[in-house]
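Minutes, project check-in
Item: structure for the 191-residue chain
Input as provided by the requester:
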Amino acid sequence: MEAQARGLLETEPLQGRDEDAIASADSPSMLSEEEKEELKAELVQLEDEITTLRQVLSAKERRLVEIKQKLGMNLMNELKQNFSRGWHDVQTTTAYKKTHVTLSHAGQKATAAFSNVGTAISKKFGDMRNSPTFKSFEERVETTVTSLKTKVGGANHGGGSFEEVLSSTAHASAQSSAGGPRLAEGEELQC
């Protein structure tokens, strides 16, 4: 009994003994000569139809290739079209649309946050520049630059603002590095 139950539950492909059992159930001896002839004729007809269908399919595939060549379609163009079509299909999905909206909102929030951080940093620099420590530092730099200008022979002896002092120092530095020693107006180089 157990062997019979196992036989019913087997999912293996048909084995040689199973094919023999099936063949004996439909044995040709049970068929009349007329039925045999009809089956043989149907078999020949089916084989002919299959051969014809293969030939038609092959001709249609050749024609397809010819048309694609005439239209300039090749594998790369087809891949591009398939990719474009696939990308369009992705963009039209609900999940993509929801993700796009979510990321857009996140981008807007990040932009606003960076803007706020930039504003806060600018304000802190402004506050720092107005602080007594920075003012003291600015005055020391002005004093140092003024004394250097006096020693080097600069024309402007007035203190000026921090920006003017930095600008004149940069200008003097550029002239001295570009043309060697700096000459006062009216002086000539003597050899």
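Outcome recorded: The first helix runs from residue 2 to 9.
No further action items on this chain.
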